User: Fold these one by one.
Assistant:
Number 1:
Amino acid sequence: MHIVAIAGSLRTGSLNRQLAEEAQRIVAELEPDARFTILDWSDVPIFNQDIEHPAPEAVARVRAEVLAADGVWFFTPEYNHFFPGPLKNLLDWLSRPVGPKQGQVLDSKPAAVSGISAGGTGTAVAQDHLVTLISFLNMRVMNKPRLTVPNGFTKVHDGVLELGDSLPYLERQAQAFIEFIR
């Protein structure tokens, strides 16, 4: 089993990247043979049909990684009650047909959604918007359980995320996603 994680924030040390790293650790414990990679998509350009064919190398690379995955786990922050613009840009690239014989790489992929934010509502609104988009792109969304961690900066000590009472919820989501992919 191969899970690709997409952290919606490109910031080094972002809370959502750290949340993805914690999920990676949990999946390794639950399913020792599983592969869990965090997608590096920082070099994906702004979508522009003028450069769509042939796809830029960074786009071809992330498409191949997503295509090879058995499931995609999104970790999104919430900016102004929405998921970040760069994540939308990545999804725009991934939603385009690869070529005349291959459609888009997200089609029918199992997907899970989590997120942590500084605000008191977690990332529930951003997750709802993200689920709307990835459902339209024909991903198979695991709607329950989802994880929203509010007040994220209260869980950071010396720059490191410590989930505390949110950890069991991430563990349950990881177990559920493994079963959902199967």
Number 2:
Amino acid sequence: MKDLITAHINEPPQLEKLYRSNKALFKRTFSSVYPELKGNSVADVWHERLSYDSDDIQWGTSQDLALLVGASLVAGLIAKLPAFAQLNEEFFYTRNIGFIIFPLLTAYFGWKNKVSTKTMALLAGAFVVAAIFINSLPNQPTSDTLTLSCVHLVLFSWSILGFSFVGNSNNSEKRLGYLKYNGDLVVMTTLIVISGGILSAITVGLFSLINLDIGKFYFENIGVFGLAAAPLVSTYLTQTNPQLVGKVSPVIAKIFSPLVLVMLVVYLGAIVYSGKDPYNNREFLMVFNALLIGVMALIFFSIAETSKTSHHRAQVWVLFLLSALTIVVNGVALSAILFRISEWGITPNRTAVLGGNLLILVNLLLVMIQLSKVLTKKTSLADVGKTIAIYLPIYSLWTIVVTFLFPFLFGFK
């Protein structure tokens, strides 16, 4: 997108076409290249246009809204399949939860980004193969490989959505934009779910005042459709109105990064003081790894947000220290996993966690090295973002291995 904007800066019709193809990406990219184009009359006009904060919400065309309503209904119907087809709910939802939303979002971004028919067919085929595979696994609720496949299948579906979001291009800028989209999606979906929850509580409460108990019917029908539609509506709003959370997400990143840094320092000190360790406590190790993944996600989200805006040196220091501390946490978790493997042998869970932690360790080391170069003014924060973006497909490959190969490698244990 950056190269296209620069190449067509003196061609207003082409710029308008680029803008309408992906407003959110265009706005972020233009903001990053404008300092180089400042003084050009067309660039200055576009800067004023994109900098203008309108109070109006853009709802798109009637066709866009019709597609949104249709997709929301489809998502709700998929979520209600166990009730319609008399399927076991635990069996269905544990294996197919990702198929309620991800295929529809993939189709949406494929349409918006004008992804080639061949590519969309491959992505659709990947969903079909994944659905057949996961629903064909033996029904053994205590199977570790089944649990791992179900969990990593959601991450695999997330990866497919990423390919659709990036479109026919394969540059790091759009991959980083995908991380930012996920952050915006979480913010907007949370707001919608909270608002929907308040509306639901009021509705059920009002009906109870006239002695009509609609709670079960409401949550099994309207509530299910609402939850299924929330990510779709959130995606539509964030893509048509980038300004809605465009200023909120960077603020969240700036506020929570230093807070998490302080929390991590205190927590590591508390671990030493309490005498707790993840070497002999499986549950503690699980919490430790959850903490690791959460902090890493915050680092990546913060870099995705900060790399496109002006940043202070203090922000970079916070991200650098947070990366360093997360590497320490990762090192402790890795040593605990290796200890448990040496003591009690290899299991599917230990192997999956070991592989994931090794990938995270390498990624964090690369990010920390790049952040150190930013501090010494040898590179820019945008290059840190590229390091993250280039590494993303490796995570996708790991999800494929765990989802599709682990059940066979470990004999469906």
Number 3:
Amino acid sequence: MRQAGTREGAVLLLGSSLTIVGSVMVAPVLPKMMAAFMPSEPHAGLWVPLAITGPALAIALFAPVAGWLADRVGRKPMLVAATLLYAILGALPAQLDALMGVVAARLAFGVAEAMVMTGCSTLIADYWHGEQRLRYVNRQVVTIGLVGALFFVAGGVLGESSWRTPFYLYLLPLLLVPFMLRILWEPPLAQQQARDQARGTDRVDRVALVAGCALIAVGMVLCFVVTIQTPVILVGLGVTSSTLIGLCTGWALLASLLGALLWPLARRGLGLHGCNGLLLLLLAGGLWILAEAPGYASVLLAVTVHGIGAGMLVPNAMAPVMNALTPQTRGRGMGLFTGCLYIGQFVSPLVVGLAVSLGGDLRRGILLLVALAVLYAVGWSGVALRGRAGLATSRQDQPPL
């Protein structure tokens, strides 16, 4: 069977990074978009933010359909078509004058993003197995973080002249299409399926699939508490400088990269289940420090602890989901996983709002989420300990050679 190498890996890692570019590159121009549309559109305060966050909702809803398409029409054809749509729909708002047209284009853009993310993740699972697959899952997270940081800065710089300018950067993925056509190949699914049947591993592990999807959804709810609420908390502490708030955001991104780099060590030392317990405790610890922070330095510490846990979340949740799927169901399974990831992002503000209503204020609401995260971490730690105990017992029962 054909073996994938570094060329395929480079194309898929760059393709995966398109998903973070879709959300971070135009975020810095939100105020300029608001100012441009406010005079002519009375509801601009509602629709302009949706133009920025709307793709996440589209991804959450369409990713399972994208997974079905990947299994039905093939991974490579869907990915190539999605990348072309990504570039065209991404740049389209720069040419539109109607706000509702911009919102519609961004929602359609989110559909293309869903296909890109699902296609890249599915091909990574198809091309590599075992430790190699885990390495590429980790590299995917690191690449997404690095490219996201680069384009966040690029979007801010280009947005100084006009809110339209950053959208033209979405045409850059067109340069990736020829490499996708030349380097990527459709995996022999029937051959993989026959091999799995011979090994007795041709059935979907539904427990691992559901557990991974639940973990990524809950984890994203906890991750976006920091993303959305940190500026609010900083303003409440008297920190109103956009530079300091932006520095805190950038620092959180660097911390998540550190977490992704530390993930292989944590996984080897604690196992996947034990690492789930660790990353949830880190997320909870960061949120607890954030809720109790007396000043800017404490907030930086909070986003550091939280970011390390966030960096471990996606690879540690994705790896067992990939392993739980058969070649014939990988597209649908990864589409479901991607959908759960973005559903967690989208509902995070709603969950925080519910927690605030129960707790009485933002600080108590965050502490309520901390308590739930700790309980979830304890559950995963218990699973890890039972697994280790079972492994030790089985080794003791083996007769000596």
